[in-house]
Specification:
alpha/beta; twelve-stranded mixed sheet; four-stranded mixed sheet; 20% strand
Length: 555
Amino acid sequence: MLTDIEIAQQAKMLPIREIAERLGISEEELEPYGRYKAKVSESIYQRLAQHPDGKLILVTAINPTPAGEGKTTTSVGLGEAMAKIGKNAIIALREPSLGPVFGVKGGAAGGGYAQVVPMEDINLHFTGDMHAITAANNLLCAMIDNHLQQGNALGIDPRQILFKRCLDMNDRALREVIVGLGGKTNGVPRQDGFQITVASEVMAILCLASDLSDLKQRLGSILVAYRYDGTPVYASDLKAEGAMTALLKDALKPNLVQTLENTPALMHGGPFANIAHGCNSIRATKLGLKLADYCITEAGFGSDLGAEKFLDIKCRLAGLTPSAIVLVATLRALKYNGGVKKENVSQENVEALRSGMVNLEKHIENMRKYGVPVVVAINRFPTDTPDEIEVLAQFCQEHQVEYALSEVFAKGGEGGVELAQKVVQACEQQGDFHPIYDIEAPIKKKIETIAREIYGADGVSYAAAANKAIREIEGLGKGNLPVCMAKTQYSLSDNQRLLGRPTGFKITVREVRLSAGAGFVVVLCGDVMTMPGLPKLPAAEKIDVDDQGNITGLF
């Protein structure tokens, strides 16, 4: 059996100019990065401004498990399957982060015969967007520390500097650091720390900005610190936004690539969904809607995290209306939710499957609350038995939800034809999309609505620091922003050990942060790390390159 990278290396890719030409993108609107990837230039937005939009399809999933769900694989395979049934479709995905690539989670280019290529480029440096975001983030940090060193005319309190440095790599040793050591010429000593790049507010801003002007305004609105007198200091007070925008000018342009079956794909931005808003850029999604009749996008992790933020933050901000939601699950993952250990999920266990389906049930209920038609995609594995599939079929029929078995991993687009047909039918249904909460509600009301309606919690408890932060944020006039919940992805609750559909629990909010540039309030629940660490056996140990430059071990 071939590995993902071996399949990708055998792909017959078309020159990216041909992919662009199929979409109606002119050569003047394309900025190639080699032969098989390119950026789409700014001029295309003005040309397509009056062009009608296609239909937006969101792919989400149940809570992730070690047994795997295959959300990105399904997204890519659905795009390939749309082409198989004669539909004009494009995929809009997030870019991978190097941290997970060399850590444990893996890349973000799909798998098997439902991949986006060139896979090695995409999972490594791609077109440099991650590096540009890292540089812009750390330029602002350098300007903060330089301001302290040069006399601190703004009166910044070094104990209340909020903005952290970032690095696009899992490195637990950088979570808490001391900067400015080594004498007076090295700066003002203070406690600092690193986040992973995909958790940076600069990443969120890039993904939510509508154009270059909006990007600059948002960068200038980043809350970086408080003064000794308690008043806020923004990036614009340091005159940092112009230089940051210069670093991000090219990164703001979406990247065009293709699938193994030459279906076009836009990949742009990559905020994590457990510690950020988990969606690709608004610019890429809007461009996809202009270029094709169907734009398939995804949101990170389970629907309780990624889809909730896609629907309550991204769609609200961008004025997007999804036509259908695809909810991905595997029988293996449902059995895991039913109490089966990872090493046994391939064995038939109808009883555990029935027990674990409560997790799927909750995610279906959640997505229906937004007024959008839902289709369940069962990412089929060879070990799934007829009896187990029949149990799931009965479940879907009882809950009056359309479902389809998907075999895109093994068969590419051909394995997703039934799913594509069901999704097209769902897109023709009359929807009534609406966010789950009122944007003008107080911050706590928004938090509690998500906790009760989406997580199934009995309520919310707040640490003293969280209460203080909420008062300060509302005092700054920012209480009318959406909330970006940061919690474990493994459970509907904030306790990763509570699988299935937990009940009788409360969500604990330990910290609240204002991301004024991004335009949301980050709410940290439970123990969520914004700088992950590498596992005991990092994926990096298996990655290698031979004397001819051929990469191996990359999934």
